[in-house]
Write a structure and sequence with these properties.
Bound molecules: pyridoxal-5'-phosphate
Distance between the termini: 24 Å
CATH architecture of the largest domain: Alpha-Beta Barrel
Strand content: 25-35%
CATH class of the largest domain: Alpha Beta
Order of helices and strands: EEHEEEHHEEEHEEEEHEHEEEHE
Number of strands: 17
Number of domains: 2
Number of helices: 7
Structural class: alpha+beta
Shape: globular
CATH topology of the largest domain: D-amino Acid Aminotransferase, Chain A, domain 2
CATH superfamily of the largest domain: D-amino Acid Aminotransferase, subunit A, domain 2
């Protein structure tokens, strides 16, 4: 039934799944609309061993956060972007698409019912994981005929332990994350199972994460295990363009907008060469979990490259502060990105 929120030590939160009071649950059959749904106690679920998700990986998810702000409000950050990406991901995996209102209403219900698990202002956030699976039984390879949508939440601190330490990325020349016309741009669960082994190998040998190369042209970089990558060179900010194999990150879009509109930096969504990354002035990655995290070292088959003396760069720091400032309502939300949960 969830841990007692009064027992949580908000200062030592990591990025783990803690059991909370409740989760949202809805089901939908093929050809029907997502409409009903309710809060149920947090807990295990029963699945047919023949379910689509267990046999053929028919599942997609989202990740977003709720923040307790300086104005003592609870806010979501750009949840409509998660709703839109969820619609895109579900379409790609033949899962019934849910409309934005249904998705956001379900997020709000889940947050309100688990409000006691939201860390106090400045101590972290409530990570929100909407996930939808094919739960109907299938034997031949085809879409299931019934789907289950769950939203569970967990209070979280930082994704990487300790102070913001620039990451050491390992460029993998042995594995690709996603095929050019595959499912890399969907938040499909299978993309993450494919990333476990490369990530395991990298971490075992002392790296923080993997940097993937483009499967069609290995001179180009794609993204990190669970984050988008940016480079800054001569005051131009570049990130790989969305060509089908990269996840269109909400944070990626937010950083592009902040750099352009608030910092007057030239931004380019373009092909990014591995060589450019290794000789960049600043490198950082972005994501809901990692926020804006600097990269200090990159090791590829051409050796180790130190970025900005291994320290967080000035622009990286400014972008991170701007983004976090908006999310915590320490600065004005002039772009209208916050969605208060009353
Ligand atoms: C593969 C991958 N790329 C990028 C991101 C960043 O996306 P967002 O900023 O929406 O969290 C994520 C999710 O965190 C991811 O899993």
């Amino acid at each position: 039934m969830g841990i007692d929120p009064k027992t949580i030590d908000w200062d030592s939160l990591g990025f783990n799944a803690l059991e909370t009071k409740s989760m949202f649950k809805a089901t939908c059959k093929t050809g029907e609309r997502w409409s009903e749904g309710k809060l149920v106690p947090y807990g295990t679920i029963a699945l047919s061993p023949a379910s689509g998700v267990l046999n053929y990986g028919q599942g997609v998810f989202e990740g977003t956060k709720a923040f307790h702000t300086a104005k003592d409000r609870i806010v979501l950050f750009r949840p409509e972007m998660n709703a839109q990406r969820m619609a895109m991901s579900t379409k790609r995996l033949c899962i019934p698409i849910m409309n934005e209102d249904f998705f956001i209403d379900a997020l709000e219900q889940t947050i309100q019912d688990n409000i006691d698990y939201i860390p106090p202002y400045g101590k972290g956030s409530l990570y929100i994981r909407p996930i939808v699976w094919g739960t109907g039984p299938v034997l031949g390879v085809k879409p299931a005929d019934e789907y289950t949508f769950i939203i569970f939440v967990s209070p979280v601190g930082p994704y990487f332990k300790g102070d913001i330490k620039p990451l050491h990325l390992k460029v993998t020349h042995n594995f690709h994350r996603a095929a050019p016309k595959g499912i890399g741009n969907a938040k499909a669960i299978g993309n993450y199972s494919a990333s476990l082994y490369p990530s395991f190998l990298a971490k075992k040998t002392g790296f923080d994460e993997v940097l993937y190369l483009n499967a069609g042209n290995e001179k180009l970089i794609e993204e990190v295990g669970s984050a988008n990558l940016f480079i800054l060179k001569d005051n131009v900010l570049k990130t790989p363009r969305l060509a089908g194999s990269i996840l269109p990150g909400v944070t990626r879009d937010s950083v592009l907008t902040l750099a352009k509109e608030k910092m007057d930096i030239e931004v380019q969504e373009t092909d990014v060469l591995l060589d450019e990354v290794c000789s960049a002035d600043e490198v950082f990655c972005t994501g809901t979990a990692v926020v804006v995290t600097p990269v200090g070292k990159i090791t590829s088959e051409n050796g180790k490259h130190i970025i900005n003396d291994g320290k967080m760069g000035k622009i990286t720091h400014e972008l991170r502060s701007l983004l976090v400032g908006i999310q915590r309502e320490e600065c004005e939300d002039t772009l209208n990105w916050l969605h208060p949960v009353d």
